[in-house]
Amino acid sequence: QLQLQESGPGVVNPSETLSLICTVSGGSISGSHYYWGWIRQPPGKGLEWIGTVYNSVNTYYSPSLKTRLTISVDMSKNQFSLNLTSVTAADTAVYYCARVDGSSWYGWLDPWGPGTLVTVSS
Amino acid sequence: ETVLTQSPATLSLSPGERATLSCRASQTVSRYLAWYQQKPGQAPRLLIYDASHRATGVPDRFSGSGSGTDFTLTISSLEPEDFGVYYCQQRSRWPPFGGGTRVEIK
Fold it and tell me: B42 contacts in A (CB within 8 Å)?
């Protein structure tokens, strides 16, 4: 059974870089037709798609975040990661990673990790 | 840009009642629409994909219908564990998610 788990700091200082890792277990991140995605949810608000990665070199980023965003894959560790630079309080959210079906850069998400709350604050 | 509008924002119902949730797209998305359920403190869970296909393990009281711009998620008889927030998502054009419908206990 495929499982995903987010990890990273719970607090990030304003203007610094938010870095998260998603570790995939129960299946391989490489050699499949699936993509891998990051989604976030500000407290009390709805879902926002951040970006998607496929096979280390192919990515799709949210138009509103693309100047600050990098998503990459480490196949040797069965992980993918998110780096978001120059964060502000508006980036405070629960961050989720998920497997994306290969029909689209923002295809169906299943399964999801449990999520990790990142607060931007000094 | 394709906007997904979910209605109502909040649905207040009692266990055993039928729930009907709507998701309307500003442009056609064919049948490329999914529904997710989110309970407090949990990640969303895929319920329905391609408008009407139930995901693995989803009870058959959940059903999806629609195509083009108008979609419906129906819960035939609400169980206590069904209360939460439901999101629709399309995969044709950015942005993917609707704003959500909260199903609360009346």
Answer: 114
